[in-house]
Amino acid sequence: MITPLKLERAELPDSGRIIAISDVHGNLPYLEGLLRKLELRDGDTLVFVGDTMEKGPQSLDTLRFLMDLDKKRRCLFVLGNCDYWYDGEDCSLPCTDWYVKDYLLSNSMGQGPGLLAQMCERIGFKITPSLDMDSLRRALGAAFPEEFRFLGRMPQLIETEHYVFVHGGIPEGGPGDWDGWDLMKNDNFMGQGRKFSKWVIVGHWPVMLYREDITDAKPRIDRESRIISIDGGCVLKDDGQLNALIIPQNGSEDFSYTWYDPFPVRRVKSAQAGSERSIYVRWGDNKVEILRRGPEFSRVRHVRTGYELDVLTKYLYGESGVVKCNDCTDYVLPLAAGDEVSVVEATGRGYLVKHDGVSGWYFGELE
Ligand SMILES: [Mn+2]
After folding, report:
1. Strands 351-355 and 358-362
2. CATH class of 7-83+154-260
C-alpha cells in the first residue's frame, strides 16, 4: 500500500503552553478527565499526536468532540495509523476496499466497533460479507462529510521551529524516501538508536514496552536522542493512562507532564521497600508455564526468560500447559508512609497500585 506523504510546517505562539496528547483510542472519558486536570487556559495550544480513534468504545464521539474542541481552542492534529481512512488524492472517500472490508467484517483493528462501524450503525447501514463498497462510500460520504474533511486535512507530521510532532516516528532517510504509512506506524521508535536536532514527540508505542522489569506509563523524555514518547497505554493496557506532555512555552525544554486514569487515589499507611528484581510480562511476550495453579494466584514461569512469579489466576488464558498471561508485574513498589497511590486492584494478598505512573504491589494497609 502506498500512502501519500503529507507534511506540514506550523508556527507556535510565543506564549502559552504547548500540550501534546496521543493515543486517546476512542476513550472519551479519559480525554475529558485529562482536559479537566489540565485546567486549560486561553493561550494553550493542544497538539493531538494521532490515534484518537479505534480500539476503545467511542471513536465517532471522540472525533466529534475533537472537531468541537478545534473550534474553541488552538489545536493541531497529526494522523495516526488508526485514524487513516483515505486512499490517494480523493479525501472524500474512505480507504481501500480490502482495508475497509477486512476491518468492518473481522474487526481486525481491535476490541470495539471502530469509527466506520459506528458510522454505519448511526445511519443504519448494514455490514454484510457481500458489502458493496461503492454504496458504503456514498452512504458514509453523504452522512459524514465534515468528519471526513476534518480527518482528510490532518498531516502525518507537523514540524515547528523546535519540535516535530509525528505519531509513529521519523523514518530513515529524507522525505523523498518516505511513505506516509511509515510515519504513522513506526514501532519501537525510541529503541532504534536515532538522534535528532529538534525534539521529536511521538505516540503509538506504549511507553511501558521500553522496560522489561517494571510497568512505567509516564512519558519518556530522552534528552540524548531528543525523542519524547508519550503513549501511556490508554485503552490498550488495563492499568494504562492518558498522558499529556506539557511544554511551558515555545522553545522551552523544561518539560513536565500530567495524566489521567480513573483509579481511586488512596494513601498508604506503612512504608515498604521496593523489590530489587522484577519482571513486566507483556502482550506479545507473555507465554508462561503454570507451575502451581491456585484459586486467586498461580505460580508461573515466564517461558522466554525462565523467570518465576505469582500472577492472578484470572490473567491466564489459552490451552493447558504453556498458556498466555495478561500484562502484569511482580514489582513491589518502594513506598513511604503517606504516599498517594491509585488502586488498580485489591486482592487477597495486597493491592496492585500505581505510584507516579509505575504499577506494582503494596502489601500494607490503605488509609
Ligand atoms: Mn498507533
Report:
1. antiparallel
2. alpha beta
Give, for 147, the enclosing helix (H) or strand (E).
Answer: helix 145-152
Determine the distance separating the centroid of ligand 1 and the alpha carbon of 354, expressed in angstroms. 24
Query: pLDDT digit string (tens) for 222-279?
Result: 999 999 999 999 998 999 999 999 999 999 999 999 999 999 999 999 999 999 999 9
Give 89-152 as a DSSP string. Answer: S-TTSBS-HHHHHHHHHH-TT-SS--HHHHHHHHTTPPP-TT--HHHHHHHHHHH-HHHHHHHH
For residue 168, how far is its CA from the centre of ligand 1 (angstroms)?
6
The pLDDT of 138-163, averaged and rounded, is 93
Residue 269 Cα to ligand 1 midpoint, Å, equals 39
Q: Report the alpha-carbon distance of residue 94 to residue 92 in Å, rounded.
A: 7
Q: How far is the CA of 196 from the centre of ligand 1 (A)?
A: 21
Average pLDDT score, the chain? 92
What's the 231 CA to ligand 1 centre distance in angstroms? 9
> Ligand 1 mean position to 9 CA, how many Å?
22
Q: Which of 60, 78, 66 is nearest to 34 (CA)?
A: 66
Centre of ligand 1 from the C-alpha of residue 306, in Å: 31
Quote the ligand 1 centre to 205 CA distance (angstroms): 7
Distance of CA 298 from the midpoint of ligand 1 (Å): 33
Give 253's DSSP letter: -
Q: Could you tell me the sign of the dihedral formed by the alpha carbons of 86, 91, 97, 102, in that order? A: positive
pLDDT score, position 85: 75
Give the distance (Å) from ligand 1 centre to CA of residue 204: 4
Measured in angstroms, how far is the CA atom of residue 202 from the centroid of ligand 1? Answer: 10
Cα 140 from Cα 364, distance rounded (Å): 54
* Distance spanning both ends of the chain, measured CA to CA: 55
> pLDDT at position 27, please?
96
- Model pTM? 0.93
Other CB atoms within a 10 A radius of the CB of residue 187 amount to 11
Comma-separated ranges of CATH 3.60.21.10 domains in the chain? 7-83+154-260
Say what the pLDDT of residue 91 is: 45
Decide: 51 and 83 in contact? Cβ < 8 Å. Answer: yes
**Residue 49 CA to ligand 1 centre (angstroms):** 9
